[in-house]
Specification:
alpha/beta; 2 domains; ten-stranded mixed sheet; 16 strands; 33% helix; 23% strand; binds iron/sulfur cluster
């Protein structure tokens, strides 16, 4: 086996070539039940489609469906379990629509599955249980189709982490607030047989997993061996695969090492790689961008779920934008389970269940309930209560 790495002008040509180089459709029969799992982590409310590089492109999914049809496959489904935030109107169906993948599926007579909706199998992660969509297991040929992204918590989010979209929303929260995130990703990946991984590297996303800091790359990585494909993906962003904890843990779990990787056919990694930075301190970025002083927002670390990050970011962005250049009176905002409020803070906001739990001794804090808290409640609490200096 090998990994195919191809530079493309047209997704369909590039994908066909990459699959040929890695013999990616080997083992696929025309009567196989095929499941495509793109990364559509979140829907977009903007009129334009989601920022390229954040979600798998509809063009790449369409190119794959065309190739599968040429192979004679009749039973194809696309599945995802996107971020659900009711007050922002976000869920998987919305994400299928805004990504353009829903429209592609409809045009090609391909089914869509919301992994958040069940039915579920209960799996053991080693630290507790999680609920995995049964639909992710009831397939003969699982194709993981992530984008090439950095991730502020796990350095990269590629084929292995992409399957986290197959568990329900409550389990996703547990992965962040109760379990070791990287170890749980490795265990989950080991429970889902994946026949083929295709990284859509049309763009590479720096400072991911959200945002718009993209580099055009026009690459496709494909292969049947997940360790090898994710290892190539990390190297394309000039990130050492050995420093990616969930990749290391998955290798250990499956009796492998990261030295034991397949040959790369096609383009040469060193000729097409681009340095992408994964570290991101978004609270500090917000405070800098809006010239805010007298307010501390600690980086939430591993403990913050995607839904919480999105909701709290949206509320803080709106509030701080409206208060550009303000000097606050020693205000602290806590998000996730890691930040413990500092004793010198004059006013502390605890946004959601997690910071309320770890700072439960703090009787005077301003608490915004919810898991995650809603954008509106968070914004209103900040607007109503945040004390300005002078
Ligand atoms: S409060 Fe936020 S970070 Fe904590 S479990 Fe709920 S959604 Fe996740």
């Amino acid at each position: 086996m090998a990994v195919g790495l191809v530079r493309f002008d047209e997704p369909s040509d590039g994908l066909a070539q990459a699959l040929e180089l890695c013999d990616g459709l080997n083992g696929l029969r025309s009567d196989s039940k095929v499941l495509i799992k793109p990364n559509i982590v979140i829907g977009s409310r903007s009129r334009s489609r989601p920022t390229p590089g954040v979600v798998t492109s509809a063009a790449m999914v369409e190119a794959l469906i065309d190739l599968l049809r040429e192979h004679g496959c009749g039973d194809i489904t696309v599945g995802e379990g996107s971020v659900v935030l009711a007050d922002m109107g976000l869920d998987t169906n919305m994400a299928f629509g805004s990504s353009g993948i829903g429209e592609v599926a409809e045009r090609h007579g391909v089914g869509l599955v919301d992994f958040n909706a069940g039915p579920f199998e209960t799996i053991e992660t080693g630290e507790g249980t999680a609920r995995l969509s049964r639909r992710a297991l009831e397939t003969d040929f699982f194709i993981s189709m992530p984008v090439l992204k950095t991730h502020a918590q796990t350095k990269v989010t590629l084929g292995l982490k992409n399957v986290k979209g197959c568990i329900d929303s409550a389990s996703k929260k547990k992965f962040h607030d109760k379990f070791d995130l990287e170890a749980s990703i490795a265990v989950l990946a080991s429970k889902i047989p994946v026949s083929l991984t295709i990284i859509d590297a049309t763009y590479g996303l720096q400072h991911g997993p959200f945002g718009n800091d993209i580099r055009q790359m026009n690459l496709i990585v494909a292969g049947k061996d997940r360790i090898s494909v994710d290892s190539v993906g990390a190297q394309l962003m000039e990130i050492d695969p050995r420093s990616v904890v969930h990749l290391q843990k998955f290798a250990e779990l499956t009796g492998r090492t990261l030295d034991d990787v397949e040959e790369v056919r096609g383009a040469r990694i060193e000729e097409v790689a681009q340095k992408l930075e994964w570290r991101l301190d978004w609270p500090l970025d917000l405070l800098d961008r809006y010239r805010i002083e007298g307010m501390v927002i600690d980086t939430p670390g591993h403990s913050n779920c995607s839904g919480c990050s999105v909701a709290v970011f949206a509320a803080l962005d709106r509030f701080l934008r409206e208060n550009q250049g303000t000097l606050f009176d020693n205000v602290e905002v806590c998000i996730g389970k890691e930040p413990i409020a500092k004793s010198g803070s004059r006013q502390v906001f605890l946004l959601g269940k997690c910071p309320m739990f770890v700072n439960r001794e703090l009787k005077d804090a301003i608490k915004v309930k919810g898991c995650p808290p809603t954008v509106q409640d968070t914004y209103e609490a900040l607007k109503r209560c945040a004390a300005k200096s002078g």
